[in-house]
Structures are given as structure tokens and as C-alpha cells.
Amino acid sequence: MSTQQRNSSHGKLIAVVVAAALVIVLALLSAFVWPGWAMNRSASEEQKQQQTTSTKPEPTTPSIKAKELPQDATPLLKAMPDSVLNFARTEAAPSANWTSASPLEEYTLTYSTGAIPKDVTLVVAQWSGSDSAKTQYDTLTGALKGTDVASGDVKVSGNSTGKYVVKSNGDKGKTATAVWQNDTVVFQATGSKESIQRFYSKFPF
């Protein structure tokens, strides 16, 4: 083979190698620099995964067992549900938060998912008449400070038996309080805003 032919073949080989290298570089550029479909695809998949995680529904049944009530529990205490959604009753004891309002009986209960930051503290008391219960309801709701979350009528079998108010507390909306009256009984639930919004709306009365 002549020198001219060898030089020609060598030049063609270099041209092929350079062309192949250019193709690889362009492919990498198109994937990761412009228009960036590889990165965009990864970001899109990550975003979809985050959305799927954030929209995952909360469980509706408790993962922990409810604490048994004492054998001498009153009808009011026995009426308190073992669970509300995935909140199970973990504590129930007589209390005296509203002694000045002279309730017939009063209890403080804790409902938990097993995660303490999500616990809901429920105070419940009963009076001999709905007027006395309404007075206590007005006192409690009048003392609430914060942003309105919800309010309306408590209805049993289509009949209005009281009212309810839910407000976020003055801690950047992290916690909330729900107060509601059902005839002669008044309830006050406190906890994280998310827990309260789920809890009060599914409480049986």
C-alpha cells in the first residue's frame, strides 16, 4: 500500500472516531443539558412519588388496643367510643376542669394513634339540663383564641341538638381546639390541627 493510501485510510479512521465521539457527546448533551429530558424525567418521577406519598389516605382503624373502662364506669363514660378512626382511647379518668360550672360528672380522656404528637385530649361533662350545658359551651367558645376552622350545628337524627366551633390556636395553626354541645353534654377536644379536624368530624356525637 502506498504512503498516500495509508494516509488516506488513517484520515478516514480518525474521521470515523471523531464522528462517533461527536455522536456520544451530542447524545449526552441532549439527555442532560438540552432539553434535559433525562433530568426532567427523574424530577417528574420523584414529584409523582412525593404526591403519591402526600395523598396517601390516613388509616381508619386503630393500630393499638383501647384501654378498658373501669367496671363502675357511668353511662356517660361508657358512651365514649373505644376508637374514632385510628384514634384509640388510651386514658379515661374523672377530672375537675369545669368544677365551677357544676357539672353532674366530668372526665378527661386521651385518644391516640400510637404517635404522641397526634394525641387528642377530650374533656366531656354532663349537666342536668341543656341550658346549663349551653352556658358552659358559650363560656368555652368565648375563651377560644385563634383562627376559625369550622362551625355549625350538631344534629342527631336530623334535629339540631347543639352547636360546634373549631379554632386553630395561636401557635401558627399547629394545634386546634374543637368545642361542641349535644343537649346536656359538652365536649372539648384539643390536639394538633390535623388530628382535631379528623377526630371531631367522626366523633359519634
Spatial order of strands in the largest sheet: 1-2-3-4-8-7-6-5
Beta content comes to 25-35%
- SS-derived structural category: alpha+beta
What is the strand tally? 8
Low-pLDDT windows of residues: 2-8, 15-46
Number of helices: 5
- What's the main sheet like? 8 strands, antiparallel
**Element pattern in H and E:** HHHEEEEHEEEEH
Outline: globular
Mean pLDDT: 82
Radius of gyration: 33 Å
Amount of helix: 25-40%
Distance between the termini: 100 Å
Essential attributes:
8-stranded antiparallel β-sheet; disordered N terminus; globular; alpha+beta; 5 helices; 205 residues; 37% helix
Write a concise synopsis of the structure shown.
The protein is an alpha+beta fold. It has 5 helices and 8 strands.
Q: Care to describe what's here?
A:
The chain is 37% helix and 30% strand. With 205 residues, it is α+β, with helices and mostly antiparallel strands. Strands 1-2-3-4-8-7-6-5 form an eight-stranded antiparallel β-sheet. β5 and β6 form a beta hairpin.
